[in-house]
Amino acid sequence: MILKKKLGNSVKFAADSSAKEKADPFSFFDVKKKNPLNFYVFVHEGRKISKGMISDFIDTPDPYISVTVPFAAKTTKKTRYFTNQKSPKFNEELLFKIPPFEDLEDNEEIEIAIMDKNYSTDDLNSRLGLKIEKLN
After folding, report:
1. How far apart are CA 76 and CA 70, in angstroms?
2. 35 or 33: whose pLDDT is higher?
3. Strand bridging mode 2-7 / 29-32
4. Where is 55: in which H helix or E strand?
5. Could you read off the pLDDT of 36-51 as tens digits, one per residue?
6. Of 102 and 115, the one with more pLDDT
7. Scanning 39, 85, 92, 128, which has the fewest C-beta atoms within 10 Å of its C-beta?
């Protein structure tokens, strides 16, 4: 049987001493509650998005932005897409819940990609990786 005691912001777990089996001395551990941080990504607009000179004559891009934050709870979020627009105005806010900065590893990277919406599979137009450094 497991006992649970609440001590402020932490919870203590321990094996019940009345159990027939001998309690493991390493079975005690602390779980500290840490509230996630809000990480906002604002996507304003795209300018002169192109698939290439020849491809633009065949099919005008249907762009959207995909943002991947690997250390967030839901890692990838997307904006809405615009049909046949080379310079769309997204004006969208993407919210990610991330762990406290002390729990992050050094040089975490966020990926921002411009995608082209298609009927079957979406095409990658361009990609940018941004390294995030810890704030002190």
Report:
1. 8
2. 35
3. unpaired
4. helix 53-58
5. 889 899 999 999 888 7
6. 115
7. 128
